[in-house]
Write a structure and sequence with these properties.
Layout: H1 2-30, H2 39-70, H3 78-98, H4 104-125, H5 132-142, H6 153-160
Amino acid sequence: KQWYQRRVAITAGMNDLQEKATEYKSYQKQFKVDVTRFDELEETHAEVRMKQQLWESLKSWDVVTADWFEKKFEELNPEDITQKVQKYAKSVMQMERGLPPNGVVPLLKEKVDDMKSKVPVITNLRNQSLKQRHWEEIETTLSSKFDPAQDTLATLQTLDG
């Protein structure tokens, strides 16, 4: 909670500085003098925004995946999962390039990559063409019953070991 308040305060401070810089630039243009470049401010502001995006992504990823793992398997939408996983994977790539090395980006990357590896299985098991005989083969392979109408992705993960 405290880190969140600190992050909000830093972001607000950066936004205030950015507004002042814009205001100073407009004055300089009005007086027809050389317009000052605030490179360090812009770089710092970009880094702060990216760090904020990182923390928000980590938090929202946990919420989204918790929902997927709690839903009945038959309610999962593979296209939605694929889209969100790709969106987060793209964000992770941007953060890897745009942020100095830290322990949070690899944590988010690991979580996204783990889910990315599950997407083909989810997609295949949500295939509407699967018949009862297919489910019987799947249950034999898993050595356990799996009912998509009752069980969840979390259940499937525990069966997979």
